[in-house]
Design goal:
about 625 residues; 19 strands; alpha/beta; Rossmann fold; 3 domains
């Protein structure tokens, strides 16, 4: 994995700016706990924090490649290129010589061989910066699905970049300011491409390449979802999905450090774990190691809700027995979830006012795993690829908005109720979140590539799938990246392989639901490696604690925040609404609404206190 950062400036000599670059690099120590490096030339400064996964000794960065006794290219790189062995062999046949076993060096040589077209040859998750010393040009490249983050900010004579906003804000040229549009982006539960919440900060869009030179900055897409007529029959389609999954797992099981899987007992994570177990056994690499999250007393006191009909633990243990996994449950308590240090760590890792028990539990799960493994494989994104969420299959899919908003009545969204916001009426009116969501929806819908079909259901479901693959999945990938890298854990996402995503995107909706269920193609493709109970289990999202003491603890923190009276967040709140929530019996308002409102206020406070972010809502 790792963290990258850097600075290009064509109007000053950066060789005297090493202390500033060192500060930028230091912000990402958690992303790369194993080593750090800096490379500086007159117009560019590159920094790196390393999590060692491939070629422990030889993969140090920033990495350079020389020709005729001089440096021709330098790179700071985060992620993994899973087809680096094939690329290495091809490049070697073309005369390239390698001094390490790392994928980083392969990417450098790929650039020397193919120029900017090299990005189209990479299969993996990555974000990197490459400096060409002859042209004095920097390239920023991000993987096709946006698995690894990459931010940048234009300056008067160049730009700053980093894996996380905090790396950029460590440079005195820019400060963390959030204006009205930024706050809208935070609250709307809509992740618009390139918007990074903070003023003057942008996020490089997935599948994009940015070039900066003395003439300025240009950005181009080297990959995006395309529409193709699907000509395979159902049997061939299922077989192709399985072939792709087997190939993806074979590539992503490569590691020079301990590796494991994340197991929830659902179809997605169970498929990854079962396929990994089969391949590891065939290679003589022993049992698959798996980890699951659970909460104290959760299974014994579980209450079904509209999203979760069963607890995970029984299915987790059944799958672990089925594949003979070396399995560990990570059991968390309410006190751990509410520990201020843990909640602050989540906000610090996110650079945004994000939190709640699902963020904190994921952070704690990853921290516990990191003590025993360095790489984990996840079932993340299968729902977006194969159509797994329940709202794919009900009226929400046909609403005139993002389906997840229609399904949940998100805070301050189309179906929000007065008690779901603690903000003042003036702020709610100023932000106009429903209007912002509507504009974002129209913009996203205009991008959808269509085939020539006139079937209205097929056209609509293609739109729904596109919205999830380009908008919704980014929430989950960002959460996964930030929470895992906060502990120096690399999490790989096999279902985000672009070959699988592109292929399944173009399969008809009738194929994706051919057995009358969600994720029909995936179920059919892996049915032979799963117990029947897990293959037939309905979608159950990542678990959320049901312990009433958790909500009481949230209210207690909110009460203390109000009593203290110094938080800048209080200026945004309607005091009477806050008091009504604090005085109401637990459960008097929808538990989900209570949590959203309370968690949002608390994380806004923590975020401002932790990052020094300034709200400028006059603009």
């Amino acid at each position: 994995m790792c963290g990258i950062t850097g600075w290009v400036d064509y109007a000053r000599d950066l060789r005297g700016q090493e202390p500033v670059l060192a500060q930028m690099v230091a912000t990402m120590a958690c992303r790369g706990p194993d080593a750090e490096g800096i490379w500086i030339a007159p117009q560019v400064a590159l920094g790196h924090r390393r999590l060692s996964v491939i070629d422990i000794e030889g993969g140090r960065q920033p990495m350079s490649v020389d020709a005729e006794g001089r440096t021709v290219a330098v790179m700071t790189y985060s992620g993994e290129v899973y087809n680096y062995r094939e690329l290495r062999a091809e490049l070697a046949s073309r005369g390239h010589r390698f001094r390490t076993e790392s994928d980083t060096e392969v990417v450098l040589h790929a650039y020397l061989q193919w120029g900017e077209d090299f990005a189209e040859r990479l299969n993996g998750m990555y974000a990197f910066a490459l400096w060409d010393t002859d042209s004095e040009q920097l390239l920023l490249v991000r993987d096709r699905m946006g698995i690894k983050p990459l931010y940048y900010a234009e300056t008067e004579h160049g730009l700053l970049f980093g894996s996380e906003p905090k790396a950029i804000f460590a440079n005195p040229l820019i400060e963390p300011v959030v204006d009205t549009d930024g706050l809208r982006e935070i609250l709307a539960f809509v992740k618009n491409p390139e918007k990074a919440v903070y003023r003057d900060l942008r996020e490089l869009r997935p599948g994009s390449l940015l070039r900066v030179n003395r003439e300025g900055i240009t950005v181009r897409r080297y990959w995006k979802l395309e529409a193709h007529e699907h000509t395979d029959d159902l049997h061939t389609t299922v077989a192709t999905v399985r072939e792709l999954l087997d190939d993806i797992l074979a590539r992503q099981l490569i590691s020079d450090v301990p590796l494991c899987t994340l197991l929830s007992g659902g179809l997605d994570s169970s498929a990854v774990t079962a396929l990994a177990a089969r391949q590891l056994a065939a290679a003589g690499r022993g049992a698959v190691r798996s980890f699951a999250v659970d909460f104290t007393g959760y299974a014994d006191n579980f209450t079904a809700d509209p999203m979760r009909s069963t607890p995970d633990a029984p299915f987790v243990h059944e799958l672990a027995r089925h594949v003979d996994a070396d399995h560990t449950d990570i059991v968390l308590s309410t006190s751990e979830l509410m520990e201020p240090a843990h909640r602050l760590a989540v906000v610090r890792a996110s650079d945004l006012p994000l939190g709640g028990d699902m963020f904190t539990s994921l952070y704690l799960l990853f921290a516990a795993i990191r003590a025993r493994s360095t790489v984990a494989l996840s079932g993340e994104s299968a729902d977006e690829v194969f159509g797994g969420y329940r709202w794919f299959h009900d009226a929400a899919a046909h609403a005139d908005t993002f389906p997840w908003l229609a399904a949940s009545g998100r805070f301050m969204g189309h179906e929000a109720k007065p008690q779901q916001t603690l903000f003042t009426d003036e702020l709610v009116s100023q932000l106009d979140i429903p209007g912002y969501q509507a504009d974002s929806y129209r913009s996203a819908l205009a991008e959808v590539p269509h085939t020539g079909t006139t079937n209205p259901l097929e056209r609509r479901m293609r739109e729904v799938c596109y919205l999830h693959l380009t908008r919704f999945v980014q929430f989950l990938l960002d959460r996964k990246d930030r929470m895992s890298m906060a502990s120096g854990l690399e999490v790989r996402v096999p279902f985000c392989d672009h070959r699988l995503v592109q292929y399944v995107f173009n399969t008809p909706w009738s194929f994706k639901t051919f057995d009358g269920r969600e994720k029909s193609l995936l179920r059919a493709a892996v049915n032979d490696v799963l117990p029947v109970s897990i293959a037939e289990r309905r979608k159950s999202p990542y678990p959320s604690t049901q312990d009433p003491s958790y909500e009481l603890a949230l209210r207690d923190q909110l009460d203390k925040l109000v009593a203290d009276g110094t938080s800048p967040v209080l200026d945004l709140l309607d005091a009477q609404r806050v008091r009504t929530l604090l005085d109401s019996p637990v459960g008097a308002v929808s538990l989900d609404a209570q949590r959203r409102s309370t968690e949002l206020v608390l994380t806004l406070h923590d975020w401002i206190a932790e990052t020094g972010a300034r709200l400028d809502l006059a603009s």
